[in-house]
Amino acid sequence: MNFPLIHTNFWDAVIAIPVIIIITQIIKILFRVQSKNVPFIALILGLIISVFISHRHHIVAGLFMGWFYGYAAIGNYSALKVSLRAYRKK
After folding, report:
1. From its phi and psi, is residue 11 left (phi > 0), alpha (psi between -120 and 50) or beta?
2. Residue 6, pLDDT score
3. Phi-psi bin for 32: left (phi > 0), alpha (psi -120 to 50), beta?
4. Measured in whole angstroms, how far is the alpha carbon of residue 8 from the centre of its chain?
5. Containing H/E element for 83?
């Protein structure tokens, strides 16, 4: 089995992750999605962006990187939220 050669473009990470965060927040506001479902939406958006835009020529690479995009967006949002709460409490 040959593993795909995955080229991670710096701009993919710089653009895709903030876009996922912004779109999930818009979806959360417009459709009144429960907070527990937002990470799942971020993961799905990461997969969609990766499979159909970033790595459209190789499905395995798209799924692999989409997983990272979604979870990176979840982690960044969570870290920002916790940091802001700690700053406000201080």
Report:
1. alpha
2. 67
3. left
4. 14
5. helix 59-89
Q: Using an 8 Å Cβ cutoff, are 20 and 73 in contact? A: yes
Q: Do residues 43 and 67 lie in contact, with contact meaning Cβ atoms separated by under 8 Å?
A: yes
Q: Please, which residues have CB within 8 angstroms of residue 43's CB and are 6 or more apart in sequence?
A: 66, 67, 70, 71, 74
Per residue of the chain (90 residues), what is the pLDDT tens digit?
Answer: 777 776 667 777 789 999 999 999 999 999 999 989 999 999 999 999 999 998 888 899 899 999 999 999 999 999 999 999 999 998
Q: How many CA atoms does the CB half-sphere of 3 hold within 13 Å?
A: 4
**Which of 77, 73, 87, 83 lies closest to 15, judged by CA?**
73
pLDDT at 11: 75
DSSP structural state of residue 37: G
Q: Which pLDDT score is estimated for 55?
A: 86
Token representation of residue 22: 């912004």
